[in-house]
Amino acid sequence: MWLRRFWVIPGLLFLVFSCVDQQEPAAAYADATTVDTVDHWQSVLDTVLALYEADELSAAMDTALAYLDESVTATWAPTASLGMLWHRLGVFYYLIDDYDEAEPAFRSAIAVREAVLGPETAEVAISYHNLGVVYKEKGNFRAAIPALEQAASIRQSIGENDRLGRTYQELGIVCNSLGDYDQARSFHQAALPLLTEAYGAEHRYTARSYFNLGTLLRKLGRYEEALEALSEAERIYRSLYGEVHAELASCYNNFGNIYDDLGNYPVAMVAYERSLAINLELEGRESMEVAENYNNLGLTCLQQGDLARARQYQEQSLTIRQQQLSTFHPRMANTLHNLAEIFTVEGRLDSALHYEQLALLHKFTNFRDSSRLALPDWETHTVAGSSVELLEILFAKARIWQLRSEQSRQRDDLLAGLATYRSCDQLIDRMRREYTSDESVLFLLDQAVPIYEGALEVVFALQGGAPAEDYTEAAFRFMEKSKSVLLLSSLKENQARMAANMPDSLLQRENELRADLAYRQRQ
User: Which contiguous run of DSSP H or E holds residue 119?
Assistant: First the structure.
């Protein structure tokens, strides 16, 4: 399994306006404080915003930080302007990709705004929204959800439907990254009518909603619907921006993903190359968008058996990402994983294991053991980025150990494979518990079929090689998980028959299957 991005960041301009909200809601900044206090913080805010408008971002940040020092803020009572100052500082940090500093700034904005304006206000909602976006950009999707849900709750209660649609968009992106696809679809489908009503059918926010829905439908394997949604996004973007724009490049990249999934590799290559040409013209050769194009071109070359070009594209992608990203970053993981896949096809299994282990390190905030035998501790190590991508990396590592054992005939390789399959199983359990939709759980189990099949193959090989050792418990666990998958298959088959107007008696069979599946998932 090869990793492709679920959604593509088309550039900073879109991020500024579509992810982090910068425009403050209209409000009367009335405070139960002295006029001098209000004037003080408003004066500071005016100075900071004037510097920002003059393209003096660094000076604006320095000025804000000087006045927000604890020794200074203690002198003046909190006001709405102070809350906005903290909020703007968070936006500034976001603009320079310093998410670690943006997070406490937005938290301070929330604290001041809740104290001064009350908890159910547009100002508090916008700070919660932006806090959730910061968590999303850091790859901390589990922290992003409650912040975004709080923003959505406030915006719904005060009737701020236009901004509610944008928060739903972000929730959809986060759920997509977590693999909770059915819930993600619900959020994207809820966002579309809100944004269309608020901004019109030909607005960039509406186009982005179609884009998000299209990328999500692709993950669900609903390719025709995905193409329709992405085509509508492309049409709107072209009418707004012309033929050369980052948003169009993003659409073409995702068209390429769909055609690659469908096995239409020549069309996929054309779409990727079209996206690359735009990104090279607009962003330059060292941009993250270009790195994404190289990554996907490399994968399609690999699918076609062109290993030399595949490696060349992946190495170009890796070089750019190493230059642009921090030492450990979840976006590095997919290129490292894809290079490992190339080495696996070439039979260079030791190199493949090395690169899969490097990919693993980038999927955690605090797991740094580069030994190829090392695996994460789910109690102490924190996942960064997509759990779906992490599962693909772990599964690939398990398969490599399995292949290596076939070459080496070494029992230790089988044991390493079994340990990695067990880690896959633990991650699947974690993901299943986090999902809010039954359909997402069923989809996850469907994707887990080859994992449990591989695990059972390793267990049987170990059992056959050393009868004195007992792997019955491991075999039983993986077989029980496999039974859950078989129940899922029966359930899906039954649903198809019902759709074809089969007798109502099948409904009882479906309920029995669901009950049995739920029981096994709890074990």
Answer: none
Domain presence at residue 246: no
φ/ψ of residue 242, rounded to 5 = 90, -160
pTM: 0.81
Assign residue 435 a region (left: φ > 0; alpha: ψ between -120 and 50; beta: otherwise): beta
Distance CA 363, CA 352 (A): 17
Question: How far separated are the first and last CA of the chain, in Å rounded?
Answer: 28
pLDDT tens for each residue of 304-338: 999 999 999 999 999 999 998 878 888 899 999 99
Indicate the DSSP class of residue 25.
Answer: P
233 within domain boundaries: no
DSSP secondary structure of 420-452: HHHHHHHHHHHHHHH---HHHHHHHHHHTHHHH
Residue 175: name the closest of 203, 204, 149 by CA. 149
Q: How many CA atoms lie within 13 A of 56 on its CB side?
A: 11
Please list the residues that pair with 383 across neighbouring strands: 364
Helices and strands in the chain: count of H runs, count of E runs? 24, 0
Instruction: Specify the number of domains making up the chain.
Output: 1
Which domain range does residue 469 map to? 437-448+455-522
